[in-house]
Amino acid sequence: MDQKLEGTPKATLQLAGKAVTRSDVTNDWGTRLQWQIKRDGKEIATMVAGLDLTYEHPDTTPGKYEVVLQQFYYVNYKKDKDGKFTESKYINISDPVSYTI
Hints:
Elements: E1 13-16, E2 19-22, E3 33-39, E4 42-48, E5 54-56, E6 64-73, E7 89-92, E8 97-100
Antiparallel strand pairs: 1-2, 2-5, 3-4, 3-6, 6-7, 6-8
């Protein structure tokens, strides 16, 4: 059974303090959704978004935080020697939101 990736998934994010709330995903491919969290430009965490519409990162270390919603873009199962996908990847499906601590 082939996966059909029709359209481009898209969601919007709203920030209230440190809490990020996402809209429903349009053109959802049905693959894994995750929150990507960066501090001062460096990825520090990824968390499964699943059915949860709101996420609040618990870290209180000072810095500039950026949160974006991503969805897995499946191409094939090719992996490198470390077990990481070589062609399939996560893509941003929202504009990032940021806050500073």
